[in-house]
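Reader question, answered in our methods column.
A reader sent in the components of a multi-part assembly and asked whether the whole thing could be modeled at once rather than chain by chain. We filled in our standard form and ran it. Here is what they sent:
COMPLEX SIZE: two components
ENTRIES:
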Amino acid sequence: MGFFTDTSVCIGCKACEVACKEWNDVPDDGLNFLATSYDNTGSLSADSWRHVAFVEQDGASGGVRWLMSSDVCKHCTHAACLDVCPTGALFRTEFDTVVVQADVCNGCGYCVPACPFGVIDKRESDGRVWKCTLCYDRLKSDLEPACAKACPTDSIQFGPLDELRERAATRLGVLREAGVADARLYGADEGDGVGGFGAFFLLLDEPEVYGLPPDPVVTTRDLPRMWRAAAAAALALAGAVAAGFAGRR
Amino acid sequence: MSDTGYYGRPVLKRPVWKWYVPAYFFTGGLAGASSTLALGAAITGNRPLARAARLASAGGMAASFPLLVVDLGRPARFANMLRVAKPTSPMSVGSWLLAAFGPASVAAAAGDLTGRLPRVAAFAGAAAGALGPAMTTYTGVLVADTAIPAWHGAYRELPLLFAGSAAASAGGVAMAATPVEAAGPARRLAALGAVMELGAARAMESRVGGPYATGRAGGLARAAAACTVAGAALTLVARRRRGAAVGAGGLLAAGSVLTRFSVFRAGFESADDPGATIGPQRLRRR
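And here is the structure of the entire assembly that came back:
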């Protein structure tokens, strides 16, 4: 199960942010004025599991093109946060989502720099890491996640991924036909660097415009090569010690 | 579109690790390389060197555990590190490595000091010596196995850099703590380690560049190289003079500390820079 966020119908109401905070009892992270269009949330964090981005661009025929997009944890098929977690606190659920077990996390912080999207973060007041659970508790009760439930335009859609991908492809076709040449799917391809997102998007511009990495890759893809480099370096060290004893006294 | 992305905000989150982590990279590396040096000294019957290296190893371990526990958001849950064993997590691999190496290192030192249970101490020393090289290099994988461009991009060089840095510090500390006539192997390990450390740092700077060459991380890297070069040069005099050995050991250890903090710092600068994340990915996609 996953999300398809169709940003072409997002109206920037932030009902998703509110619904998420209310349902999941996510603490407030301050009333800040960031002077970045209507965005005073800034980014996803330990205390913001949905984040509506607002991008103001010069329109083609004068005026402003206003892009809005509700960002969320991508629930990667190959999730770096889960791979590097040393305690097993991060796990893959029966819904193929990625969730932190708060009673296991010891706050080592390894998942934070491992995430290629900068999603998961440590809550300083608490010491543990937090992120979107795709409303694990609601899914267990056959309810859709709070953000999708609250979204008034169905910009956030919840369902089985193959169904969502089909719907997204159809929607992309409609937009392209209507002349929206920059429309594209982001994270719908299972062949990408993280094996496809469990929460993918339809964007109206390059991913980086929304603060998203254009070609994210799970860091552990290179791990076998890293371990080989470490083994070679360990041998070099053992060799250096041995050479020290082989020399003159 | 520009490389600054969304209002110039970082794409990645900064690491939440504090100075305890690079400090541990130093103490853990010192402990690891010292144990291997001690094993060599024990095999060749060099008792003063074996004792100095065993004590350096146990000292490094004694400092390592509090550093690692204090850095956790929930220190009381440190034992959760041994809840699972995951080869995909270098921190999990390192935790199990430490669980074996730490007690062995301390037992070897305790056996040397007290003379009790010589067979247990010898076995502990052999185990610690065998695991030592892994202790010095897994931390390079630990930082490389992240999304941070400066860390991930340097995965080929980081283990060698940390191994060389650990060898230089272990050789340095052992030659400072051992009479000059017994310290030959320590001096040679220190010199070889310094060459490895300087060579890996140079390779990393030219291949990955970025924060390793500029800013605060670049400054730390230059200070590290200066200390290491000076320490290695002084090692040549340390054959005759104990004072020179102490000075060389101090300089090499300082260079080793600075190397770890330089790498640590570079990761923060890289994570804060949206262009470092977006730029290479955009090139890759084209």
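What stands out: Helices of chain A lie at 15-24, 80-84, 111-114, 136-140, 146-150, 161-177, 223-246. Chain A has seven helices and ten strands.
Send us your own complexes using the same form.
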